[in-house]
From TrEMBL:
Source species: Methanogenium marinum
HAMAP family: UPF0285
Family: Belongs to the UPF0285 family.
Domain of life (superkingdom): Archaea
Designated name of the protein: UPF0285 protein L0665_09825
Amino acid sequence: MFIGIDHGTTALRFASDTAEFRIPREKATEFTTTDLERICPVEEIEGIAVCYSMGDAITDITDIRKVKNRGIITREGAGKHTGGGTRVYDEIAASGIPAVVIPGIHRGSPTDPRFKAYSHQTSPEKLGIAYEVMQTLGETFIVSDAGSNTVSLLITDGTITGAFDACVFAPGTTHGALDVDAIRRIDRREETANEAFLHAGVRHTIPEDLQEATLALWTAMEIASLRLLAPDAPVAIAGSQAPGIAAEVSRLIKTPVVVYDDWVAARGCARIARDVFVGGVTSVLGLGIDR
C-alpha cells in the first residue's frame, strides 16, 4: 500500500488508491503513525510521499532521510503555522517507513526561466494534483487549485513548465497578493506581511454576494494567461471552490473544465509514491528523484 499526504491550508489529507481520511491541522499536532491504520495496517505500507510547507529548499523528490530542515528554507513567511504539518512530517521521518518528500517549485526548479521572476511558484501538494490530473487529461494541460488560495500550473509534455503561486496572482477565499492598501497597513505596522497575506482573499475584500463570481473571474484570468504558452491545453480545476466556480470559469475561457475533488492532491502523491518505489520512474513531472 502507498500513501500520499497533502499538507493543505486547513487540514492534512491522507490517501491511498482505496481509502482516505483527513485531520484538521490543529488536531494534527496529536498525530502518530498508528493513525495511518485508518487506511491499512502500518506494516503493509510500502511507501509514503510527504508534502511539507513550501518545499523551497529541495528540487528533487527526495528520500526523507536525506532531507534537512524538512525541505524548507525557513518556517517564516507566507502561510498559516499551526505545528500539525510539522508533527506529521516528523512522525513519518521517525517511523522507518520508506518515504519521499515532494519539493515545491521555486527559482531552483527546472521550469521555464521566465517564471522565475518570482521566487516561488507552487507548494508541493499541487504537484500531486498535477500528477493525478495527467493520468486522465494527458501530458499537456493546465490545472488550477482554487480554495483558501488559488494556484495554477502548466504541464507541457509531462513536465512542469511553470506556475502562479497564491502570493502573485489570483486570490483564494483566504489568501491573496498584497495590494496597495495591504502595503500601507504593513508600513503602518498594523499587520505583518504574513497577516496581510492571510487577509487578502475574497472573503476579506469582496461583498459576500460577489465572492464566488470574483474567484471565478480571477481563476479564469490565471488559466487564460497560462494558455498563452499552450493555447489548446485542456483545463482542470481542483480544490474546495472548484464545484462552485467551474461553470463560470468554463464560460469565461470558452473551454470545458474538468473538476476534481479535495482528495486529488493526496491521491496524486500516493501515485507518486507508488511510481517512485516500485514503478521504476526516473523523474516525475520533469523533477529528479533522489533516493
